[in-house]
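Team,

Forwarding the record for the chain on the shared tracking sheet. I've put the sequence and predicted structure together so nobody has to dig through attachments.
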Amino acid sequence: MTRPSARFLHAAGVRLDVPVEGCGRFAAGSQAVRLRDLLAESAFQALERLVATSIEFDVDFVLLGGDTFCDADASVAARGALRRALEKWAEHSTPVFVVPGSDDPADAWTRFPSLPECVTLLTPDPAGDGPHHVERGGEVVAAIEYWHQSPQARRRNPRDADGAWRIAVLADDPWQDEASLRRLESPAADYFAVAPATGRQTEAAHGAVMHSPGCTTPTRGHETSAGEATLVTLDPEQGIECEPVGLSSFARLSRRLTIDDRTTEERFLQQMRQALREVATTPPREALLVSWKVSGSGSFRQSLIDAEFQQLLFESAVEGMIRPSTSIVQHVEIEPLTPRFPRGKPGDAKTLVSKAIAALENRSAEFDPDSWLRQAGLASRTAIRPVDRTRLQAAAASRIEEWLGAGTED
């Protein structure tokens, strides 16, 4: 029996009317006003584009993978926009499968007044009623089900609809537990939808695909997302294809960059450009928010402290990668240096205390003596038996300069 082809949209983290974290630090003046308005409307526009895309491609169903809205915010605007979208899908007889998220739990959806019949809530109920079938022209093209077990714990069910594509929505992020598809000899589903709105990620093995579309609206400061959903095509000859669909008006990049004594301007630019490739999308976004966290030491660190140098460096990194009309704003955080563990035997409390006292007397601004004492197994300085500070300082004096200049841990 030849399998039918099918197509659906997979989106997660639409986050209607959820404030964008940390945007206030990105810009000032007229740029801040424009950016604020753009970010405030982005999620609503993304939902409208999601509906329009589903109609344009005549998809068989839509999968909303959690955090579509925030129940705690009780936003009337969010619920109004969601109702209009659901009614539009109902007009086109498009099934919508909803996965509850941390912001929109199952009870928030059950309290939603008069959900259209096209909406099916995939609740985390172990006593669920089995897979939900999606039909086209009287033929079952897909069977979708919420899984509580890991992919390794499931086997193919002979009762699955013959020829239908099996879609499994996973309750947890399998990649956090290193539950790779490559470890499965015979996956029990064709498409594994990762429900948590993690970063965009895809794994393909043994004819199956495991995929997270990332956040449609990257509101949280630690997130990296180009603001996309995924158009999934299930073809019996070509297999499964996951095509990104741009929805959000802005993209977000949060990345930690590490420097050391070997870091040069060119090497640092390479790190920045490699990170920017993740959000250099087509079509491009109206705005790009970038957060850099820089850790490490070396001569290049001093150059990065200069704000003018930071800006020139960033302009060089984005040149040719991001279109000029995109509003690009960045925030740079240079993490404080962390002294290395003292050289010598880690359990040598005497060496530890000696250097701690010496650094304290020298008023080292980047030194926490109590943390060193805890490493030595001492609760606090009051737990140290009385010592001759003068003798102890003299013993440490010859080493303190070397230690303070020994570098940092990443």
